[in-house]
Amino acid sequence: MPEVYETRRARLRERCNASGSASALISRPANVRYLTGGAPHGAVLLLGRTEDLLVYGSTLDTPADEPRPDGGLRVHALPSPGGDPAVAAADLAAAQGAESLAVEEHHLTVGRHRAIGSVAPGLRLADVGGAVEQLRVIKDQEEISCLRIGAEIADQALGELLESILVGRTERHLALELERRLVDHGADGPALRTSVGTGPHSGRRGHRPTDRRVEEGDFLSVCLGATYRGYRCEIGRTFVIGTSPADWQIELYDLVFASQRAGREALVPGAAYRDVDHAARQVLDSAGYTEGLPESTGHGVGLEIDEEPQLAPAAMGKLDACVPVTVEPGVHLPGRGGVRIDDTLVVRPEADGGPELLTITTKELLAL
Fold first, then answer.
1. CB 114 within 8 A of CB 288
2. DSSP character string of 262-296
3. DSSP 8-state code for residue 201
4. Helix-strand-coil split of the chain, %, nearest 5
């Protein structure tokens, strides 16, 4: 669908022109892919004064199954190895007669920025800022379809694990098995480092699996995600192992579930990012869990697993329809364990049924 990428580049060009730059250099890999459909490793996009160019190193090392750039975009390979595509693109922009070049200062290193200025001293370098990231926030139907399939894959992998024997197996083993199942069901690979926490490790955000073995009565918290055609989604669930949950486990689980539900229900077009965070956070705050809460309740997903918007107390901005986000509150009690519940959803207006839940594995507190 080359017209999709042409339209995206045209929208970026309008923003650049409005800020006084006729040319732009895009170097952040996810942004390059968004604007081109696919690119070799290390490639950059020159939004040129006379034509757009995808510039990459002399060795095309992209695997055969990786997406290729749209056919309407001319590619430019560097003539010799060792060159920097970003520096070469700046030289090409100058050759096209550009007077200014907007670059992604948040992605370029200081050394790379200086090299660009040296090769094309006549170019005025400006900052494109987060213009591409802002364009990426609202997803089209093809992007949402990829996220939906990724969510289905993650649900399948998690569901199969829950049907297996868990007691005695290590966190590390379970994480590796989940990642294998993701690929078996058609994922490009995991969308994030798979987290499996048992007992006192459960409920910890970003916990790296250890050799601790699953025991009877443990909380088991799992967070995983699938990448499908470059788009990433995630899911997190908490269960009890082998026995009926203790009273404290039920109380803690019900609290986090109520927090997560409040956050999900706040996902409406026009809602402030920080209000969504507040809706989920106040449930935990009112129960006395004010210490150790995560910095944000959720975040956007897409070509990266953590992108705009951020659902955080100080976040500025409001939600639009067709924005996929996570809602993932959690509580961890040191030495005891905790609960995390994490879903990927797409913001929809109430007339369309409200937020679309992509990850549908049950959120009941199951005893496995």
1. no
2. HHHHT--TT-BHHHHHHHHHHHHHHTT--SS--S-
3. G
4. 35, 20, 45
Position of tokens 């490639």?
43
> What is the tens place of the pLDDT at every residue in 242-296?
989 999 999 999 999 999 999 999 999 999 999 999 999 999 999 999 777 788 9
Question: In the chain, which residues have pLDDT < 50?
Answer: none
User: CA torsion 252→253→256→261, rounded to 10°?
Assistant: -150
What is the pLDDT at residue 58? Answer: 65
* Stretch (H or E) spanning 58: none
pLDDT of residue 79: 84
Cα distance between residue 44 and residue 33, in whole Å: 9
Contacts of 36 (CB under 8 A, 6+ apart): 5, 43, 45, 54, 69, 70, 73
**What pTM, to 2 d.p., does this model score?**
0.94
Strand partners, 24: 47, 102
Cis peptide preceding 309, ω within 30 of 0: yes
**CA distances (Å), 96 to each of 48, 88, 226, in order?**
7, 13, 41
Q: Are 267 and 276 in contact (CB under 8 A)?
A: yes
Strand stretches in 159-292, DSSP E:
189-190, 195-198, 219-228, 231-240
- State how far the Cα of 238 lies from the Cα of 196, in Å rounded to an integer: 10
Residue with tokens 């197996």: 169
DSSP 20: T
pLDDT at residue 305, as a whole number? 97
Exposure pattern of 165-200 as b/e (b: 16+ CB <10 Å)? ebeebbbeebbebbbebbeebebbebbbebbbbbbb
Sign of the CA dihedral with 119 first, then 95, 19, and 323 last: negative
Largest CA distance in the chain: 72
Cα distances from 26 to residues 16, 79, 110, 207, 230, in angstroms, run 12, 21, 16, 33, 18
